[in-house]
């Protein structure tokens, strides 16, 4: 049975897998499917037609499955698929696909999406990939 914090908002239609944990102030949309043993820390948003695979952990303030950051997007039906055993750290964004790019954003299994990284619409990330946002040193002019 999943464990859902009383402050979490789970919309009708969402599927929460066996042994999953949904932390405080999370918002889960009606087309979301969380696999078994998924953990959402506090303040996570998962929306759209989004599936997150078994054993994945999503840390605070991540937004998964939101519409693409593409001015050509007109509300067409697209999706986000995240594989198993992923670690999605704080402030990560993963946007849904676009019709022009195949309609799907996909992250494989056993990935680490480090804090603040962004997986753009239509991206296809393989298995065991680490994504990091590189910020320049303050010493660089």
Give an account of the 3D structure.
- This protein is mainly beta and 141 residues long.
- The chain has one domain: UDP N-Acetylglucosamine Acyltransferase, domain 1, CATH 2.160.10.
- Helix content is 0%, strand content 33%.
- The protein contains no helices and 19 strands.
- The chain has strands at residues 3-4, 9-10, 15-16, 21-22, 27-28, 33-34, 39-40, 45-46, 49-52, 57-58, 63-66, 79-82, 87-88, 93-95, 104-107, 112-113, 118-119, 124-125, 130-131.
- It has a seven-stranded parallel sheet, with no helix packed on it. It has a six-stranded parallel sheet with strand order 2-5-8-11-14-17, with no helix packed on it.
- The protein is globular, with a radius of gyration of 15 Å.
- The chain starts with a strand and ends in a 10-residue tail after the last strand.
- The model has no long low-confidence stretch (mean pLDDT 95).
Topology at a glance:
Layout: E1 3-4, E2 9-10, E3 15-16, E4 21-22, E5 27-28, E6 33-34, E7 39-40, E8 45-46, E9 49-52, E10 57-58, E11 63-66, E12 79-82, E13 87-88, E14 93-95, E15 104-107, E16 112-113, E17 118-119, E18 124-125, E19 130-131
Parallel strand pairs: 1-4, 2-5, 3-6, 4-7, 5-8, 6-9, 7-10, 8-11, 9-12, 10-13, 11-14, 12-15, 13-16, 14-17, 15-18, 16-19
């Amino acid at each position: 049975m999943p464990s859902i914090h009383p402050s979490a908002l789970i919309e009708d239609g969402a599927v929460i897998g066996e042994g999953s944990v949904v932390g405080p102030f999370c918002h889960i949309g009606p087309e979301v499917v969380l696999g078994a043993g998924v953990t959402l820390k506090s303040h996570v948003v998962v929306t759209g037609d989004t599936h997150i695979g078994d054993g994945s952990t999503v840390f605070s303030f991540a937004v998964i499955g939101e519409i693409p950051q593409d001015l050509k997007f007109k509300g067409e039906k697209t999706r986000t698929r995240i594989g198993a055993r992923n670690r999605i750290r704080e402030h990560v964004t993963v946007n849904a696909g676009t019709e022009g790019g195949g309609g799907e954003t996909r992250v494989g299994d056993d990935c680490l999406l480090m804090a603040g990284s962004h997986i753009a619409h239509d991206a296809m990330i393989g298995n065991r990939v680490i994504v990091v946002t590189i910020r320049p040193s303050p010493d660089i002019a």
